[in-house]
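Z., the sequence and structure:
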Amino acid sequence: MTIARYEIFKKVAEIGNFTKAAEQLNMTQSAVSHAITSLEKEIGHSLLKRSKQAGIATTPIAERLLPHISQLLRSESIIRQEISLANQQLEGTLRIGAFTSAASQLLPPMLAQVKQLHTGIKVVLFEGTYDEIKEWLLQGTIDLGFVVQSNPHSRLNLIPLLQDELVIGLPSEHRLSRQERIDIHELNGQDFIMPKGSYYSLVEECLASHGITPNITMEVLHCETIINMVSQGLGLTMGPELLFRAYPQIEHKRLLQKSCRSISLAYLEASPVIQAFLSCNKLI
């Protein structure tokens, strides 16, 4: 019963909301609240601070306990996986973190390979930014994550996947669309839509390293909004090639001055379900 209460507490602490945690755990809100109260009585300390203004926050002792609870839950999950593997029917949940383009372009064929051989593996997807995925890995929120190697951590095991080039996104009728590769200096003075998402720093660094000053007309967060604006001729943009594969309504051209982001899979500990995922995709 304590293991179950730990799992409930960890979910509430991660989400910061009883109702949403209950939905994800497939429980009633009252059952979640009762489990937390019971755990607090067992420990003898409050774990969560509740207020109408600030919502739910963890107490200092909860912050100290959470890493150990995460490790305990991870170990308990691996034990169940090892037992199912010994019984020749691997079962378990694989929590995967991915940024948008990896989730839409890289992950689906990988999951298809796993599904063919391991029907007992359930996958839960967490979509987030580069930094969020790294933190989720270190905190034990996810088991496996797509990361950019410019943002690694010494505790993480990395499996390189690909070099994803930065490209120029532009309308099909733009004069530069006739070129096979574009000289980055062509962007000087061009109307430019600056992405504000997770790859903003990659674009900013690439422009700065070549001394390029485009005419930034807008700074936009969401990829689809950027693509729609480019398709209407409101400016050029720049981003990883993997992103643009999902948007055939605009052209994308590689640069003469090649610049890439290195994408890898990262994990802390190779559990049986992680090993199955990697093996199915010929990564080990």
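The two ends are 37 Å apart (CA to CA). The longest helix spans residues 60-86.

Let me know what you think.
H.
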